[in-house]
Design a protein that fits this description.
The chain is mainly beta and about 200 residues long. About 10% of the residues lie in helices and about 55% in strands.
Length: about 200
């Protein structure tokens, strides 16, 4: 299963690389997006900040617009990030998403996206595995396991200026289950983001 996950992730990465070869990978007009978030599991009782521990995470990424319409854009995005949940798991991940954004005349925008990604997941504490020969659980090394992520995101934001490369603030929610299915892998993230344009013309 791990080999299948790696092959699927590699295929998605090669597709994104092929697209990027048609575009400037990073250059003038290319945004950098920083996101920080609180992460929980879907089985936990909601995304509550006041009465549960904070489980931090962060992502950095960029995007490539597939069209140049002033109000609506279809885009491909790539992100790398990680999260820490002291009770369930910690992980690092790489994702690619296809999304759509609509922007109003006053700078407000909404966007949706979905994609696929690769995660390396580590469990807290000691890890045990079932030994078929001995018919009992034995302690195993905690080197993590590979999983495929299926991120689905919704974001609302505001462009802080009327010029083309004005920075953007956004609030986002992402549901990102792991495959193969795992009760501890039903991730949901709620956070804040900033997009800016560091590369000058």
């Amino acid at each position: 299963m791990a080999k299948k996950i790696l092959l699927m992730t590699l295929f998605a990465g090669l597709w994104m690389q092929a697209w990027c070869q048609r575009k400037a990978l990073l250059g003038p007009g290319q945004p950098i997006r920083l996101l920080v978030f609180h992460g929980t599991n879907q089985l936990e009782p909601g995304l509550r900040f006041g009465n549960q521990d904070f489980h931090p995470g962060a992502m950095i990424g960029t995007e490539w617009k597939l069209n140049q319409h002033p109000r609506s854009n279809v885009f491909v995005a790539g992100n790398i990030g990680g999260y820490h949940h002291k009770l369930l798991s910690s992980g690092i991940f790489l994702t690619g998403e296809l999304g759509y954004r609509y922007r109003s005349s006053i700078g407000l925008f909404a966007q949706v996206s979905a994609g696929v990604g690769y995660a390396r997941v580590f469990y807290p504490g000691e890890v045990y595995e079932f030994d078929e020969g001995a018919q009992r659980f034995q302690k195993a090394s905690n080197t993590g396991h590979s999983a495929m992520l299926v991120p689905m995101s919704l974001a609302l934001g505001y462009k802080m200026g009327s010029y083309r490369n004005a920075p953007e603030l956004l609030v986002f929610y992402q549901y990102a289950p792991e495959l193969p299915f795992s009760l501890s892998g039903l991730h949901q993230f709620l956070g804040l983001g900033l997009s800016f344009y560091p590369f000058k013309n």
